[in-house]
Predict the 3D structure of the following.
Amino acid sequence: MEKQLRSEYKLLLDANEMNFDPSTLTLDWGKIKEFNRYPDPTSIELRTAISDVLNQKRLNYDCENQYHPILPNQLIIGTGSDEILKLILESLTDKGSVVLSPTPSFSEYEKLTELVKGKLIKVPCNDLKVDIEGLINASKSFEARVIFLANPNNPTGQLMTKFEIEKLLLETDAYVVVDEAYAEFSEVTALCLLEKYEKLLITRTLSKAYGLASLRLGYLIASESIVSVLSDYKMTYNITGVSESIAIEVLKNTTYADQYIKGVKSLRKRAFSLLNELENIMAIPGEANFILIKIIGDQRYLQLKVAFETAGVKVRYFNSGNNGKVDESLNNCIRVTLTTEEEFMTVLGLMKGVLK
Ligand code: PMP
């Protein structure tokens, strides 16, 4: 029943992308077209552009008085933050090392840990909320090397406080990787803890709030000494010159992203209250650019899937029956990317049709 290609769908709301039209950007194609040249292996221009953006936006974060500017030498660029997550495991773990993550969380942590022959232990959430004490206890019992913590979490959208992250840093010996793929849509970041904790690593991406998913650009923010260790494991030319040049151009003016984030945040509130008016569903309040919705009843879940597929609307389905790797607590859940009011209203209309 599902269409073969993503391009066959009218609305793509399954991968938390932005829906903006890149052709509206004015880019200087001169440098972008230098296909014949290898890129700069250190990506210094892009690292500088990213650190400038982070430092300009520091007042958006909950660390005004303790903010230390992020230096380009605290960054590594990867082909998406996926590559950075793998780089972290390749450089900081050995075969058989224990890696922890809450469950449910981003499924890639399991795949990447398998790739490096580590052992992922999943610590169940309580009512979809990350169990920090559970992570601390598991870290002690299993001598975990790395803890992955998506904040906000994917697919629940749940947010951990800076205090909770600090507790994890203080009470475990593990490297704590705070995956901030969606941080721009929330009010929390661990950036201001970097000065204090050498074993804190933060990953970010240009795929979500900056709308550049196809460029495959993500980055690590950590201490200069961690960056120097990880840099030895990075492939010399990991990112393309084309992606780097486009991103540098785009980051010169990020007003489009600021406006988009603002729009998503207000849509999120409205979507949550509109969904709550429907029967037989539970909308989970979250802090990212998506919303998790639990459908009550197998039959309704399947009917909704048919309605979405028929209308050419792609959302993310979770059903523990279909795939042993999906957490039980996500049974009959769908995750819908929040983009514009208009796109959300299409989703809501389809849901109303099925759940009436
Ligand atoms: N972390 C989380 C929590 C994500 O949801 C995603 C994308 N789905 C990523 C990392 C990877 O993003 P990218 O590789 O596009 O930077």
Remarks:
- The first helix runs from residue 29 to 32.
- Residues 16, 80-82, 106, 150, 154, 179, 181, 205, 207, 213, 218 surround 4'-deoxy-4'-aminopyridoxal-5'-phosphate (CB under 6 Å).
- The chain is about 35% helix and 15% strand.
